[in-house]
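Exercise 7. Given the encoded structure of a 456-residue chain, write a plausible sequence.
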């Protein structure tokens, strides 16, 4: 017994010596996140807590609720979370005693029947908190998957909102193109009349017909794009029907989300939380791998009886026994040490994964903040150019009717005007969609009022 205790003490000290130099990757991850510099200042920030509250629309909330309840990918993420929760309960069971019961019978010629009953209880004593570490690692797996579920839910909401805005933008694009086709068709009719009266050339007529046909082809393509966007939205909503979606074509107000300090912003992001939980789980499993090198103690208690009837087994004069077993690994070809080294390297890999997620998060926020300013300037310049183009177009129309302007010049100015209108529409959509992207990058989640109860 004395030698066993000495052996256990030696192994314990050896294990402590091997684990004392381990790197605290979780602390390094927290330090990396705290070292991120402040975001660039952005005007008109609004204290919006939830990403869906960035958009002022009563039409959007029912669509978001439907998507969060019916989207197949999100439901898969939820089921994966429930699997992790079940696995955690399974891991926790290793810390509890296990009980087994057995009954056997024997019949021998010219002899009484014999029945044997046994009840045994076994328990592995968690001397070094190895089983507790394993359970804690399973807890971190659950926390990771819960964060990934939240990330999938928030991303889905942002996708629904973005496609919804894109449909509005595409409806505007179709309207602009219809106006372009109408204008070109009107020009074509006017040129035909002039040509019949000998006031125009065949080249003018061919040029007008070419422009009209090209514009009609573009209109057909834009209508198909609109149809495909609606189908994409139905897919996110989890619908399988082909029923159209009635969406208002007026742009809503989209608030500019508040960019808090990085330390507050980054830890709101569920993907960063998930990456941090991966480090914690890997570190705990590294502890488990090192503690596998230490002795283990298991206790087994058994109650056994033999009787002539099944009912009498274990009820008359049972015999009990108690077994305590202390085992320690001596030599396994370096497998246990290699397993500990692998576990520590996997923790390092998890830390690098966290760094990658952190860098991507910082890049996403910085890009979205930069895009807000750039798109605002582009939109302002485009609106100024469009105002001048409208004035210029009116002058060219009057000049063409009076014979002072060539038809090709008029068509060129008309194309430029409609191109600017289309450009303004695209920039408006991009700016509003970028604010949703920024909200997602800042870690804004979905309002529980529309997302329903979240899994524990």
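Solution.
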């Amino acid at each position: 017994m004395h030698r066993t205790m000495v052996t256990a003490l030696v192994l314990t000290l050896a294990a402590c010596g091997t684990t004392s130099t381990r790197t605290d990757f979780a602390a390094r991850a927290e330090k990396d996140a705290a070292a991120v510099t402040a975001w660039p200042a952005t005007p008109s920030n609004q204290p919006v807590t939830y990403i869906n509250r960035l958009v002022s629309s009563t039409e959007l909330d029912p669509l978001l609720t439907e998507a969060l309840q019916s989207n197949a990918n999100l439901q898969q993420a939820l089921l994966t979370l429930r699997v992790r929760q079940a696995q955690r309960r399974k891991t926790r069971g290793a810390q509890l005693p296990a009980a087994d019961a057995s009954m056997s019978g024997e019949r021998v010629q010219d002899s009484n029947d014999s029945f044997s009953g046994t009840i045994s209880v076994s328990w592995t004593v968690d001397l070094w908190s190895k089983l507790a570490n394993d359970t804690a690692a399973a807890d971190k797996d659950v926390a990771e998957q819960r964060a990934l579920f939240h990330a999938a839910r928030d991303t889905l909401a942002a996708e629904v909102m973005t496609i919804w805005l894109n449909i509005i933008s595409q409806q505007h694009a179709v309207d602009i193109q219809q106006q372009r086709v109408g204008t070109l068709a009107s020009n074509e009719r006017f040129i035909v009349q002039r040509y019949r009266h000998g006031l125009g050339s065949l080249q003018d007529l061919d040029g007008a017909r070419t422009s009209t046909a090209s514009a009609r082809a573009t209109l057909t393509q834009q209508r198909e794009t609109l149809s495909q966007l609606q189908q994409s939205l139905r897919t996110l909503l989890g619908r399988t029907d082909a029923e159209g979606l009635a969406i208002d074509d007026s742009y809503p107000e989209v608030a500019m989300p508040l960019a808090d300090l990085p330390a507050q912003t980054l830890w709101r992001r569920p993907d960063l939380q998930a990456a941090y939980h991966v480090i914690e789980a890997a570190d705990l499993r590294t502890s488990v791998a090192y503690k596998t090198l230490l002795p283990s103690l298991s206790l087994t208690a058994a109650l056994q009886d033999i009787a002539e009837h099944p009912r009498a087994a274990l009820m008359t004069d049972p015999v009990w026994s108690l077994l305590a077993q202390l085992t320690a690994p001596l030599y396994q070809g370096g497998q246990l040490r290699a397993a500990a080294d692998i576990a520590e390297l996997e923790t390092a890999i998890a830390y690098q994964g966290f760094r990658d997620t952190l860098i991507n998060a910082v890049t996403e926020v910085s890009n979205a903040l930069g895009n807000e300013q750039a798109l605002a300037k582009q939109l302002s310049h485009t609106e100024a150019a469009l105002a001048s183009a409208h004035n210029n177009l009116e002058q060219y129309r009057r000049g063409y009717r009076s014979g002072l302007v060539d038809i090709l010049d008029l068509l060129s100015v008309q194309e430029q005007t409609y191109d600017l209108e289309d450009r303004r529409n695209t920039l408006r959509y991009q700016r509003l969609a970028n604010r949703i992207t920024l909200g997602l990058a800042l870690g804004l989640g979905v309002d529980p009022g529309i997302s329903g109860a979240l899994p524990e």
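Remark. The first strand starts at residue 45 and ends at 46. Students should compare their own answers with the one above.
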